[in-house]
Amino acid sequence: MEVKATMKFVRISPTKCRDLARRMCGKPVNEALQITQLSERKGAFNLGKTLRAAIANAQNNAKLEPENLWVAKAVVDEGPRLKRHWPRARGMASPIIKRTSHINIVLSDAPRPCSRKK
């Protein structure tokens, strides 16, 4: 059985989260939580929060035990970009793109190899 959790419109660039998401994929839930708690990366907080939400969904909605869960898929997609401008010399402006992310985590009750999105 699969359980999902999604966190949308997170104000962090997807590239800052993707390496941690790839490291979590295919691991038991306890190891994945340790990866997010011990990492000093900026995206570790949001990935950990989404992972804990997926574990809570598995416990409350599907009545699954967290010790038996595995991370089947952890994907960080790009959300909408916020377009801003920064003032420059002689009345000009430089564009600034503030990126957002959508974090999706799928847990399963059976270990399986992680499917990578291409």
Task: Give the total of beta strands.
Answer: 5
Q: Say what the CATH topology is.
A: Ribosomal Protein L22, Chain A
**Rg result:** 17 Å
Termini separation comes to 24 Å
The major beta sheet can be summarized as:
3 strands, antiparallel
Question: Per DSSP, what share of the residues sits in E-state strands of 2 or more residues?
Answer: 25-35%
Which H/E pattern describes the elements? EHHHEEEE
Question: What would your notes on this structure say?
Answer:
By secondary structure, the chain is of the alpha+beta class. The chain has a single domain (2-108), classed as Ribosomal protein L22/L17 (Ribosomal Protein L22, Chain A). The chain has helices at 14-24, 29-38, 44-60, and strands spanning 2-10, 70-78, 82-87, 93-98, 101-108. A 3-stranded antiparallel β-sheet has the order 1-5-2. Strands 3-4 form a two-stranded antiparallel sheet. Strand 3 (82-87) and strand 4 (93-98) form a beta hairpin. The longest helix is centred in the middle third of the chain and has 17 residues, at 44-60.
Describe this structure in a few short sentences.
With 118 residues, this protein is of the alpha+beta class. Helix content is 32%, strand content 32%.
What is the strand and helix layout of this fold?
Blueprint: E1 2-10, H1 14-24, H2 29-38, H3 44-60, E2 70-78, E3 82-87, E4 93-98, E5 101-108
Antiparallel strand pairs: 1-5, 2-5, 3-4
Helix pairs in contact: 2-3
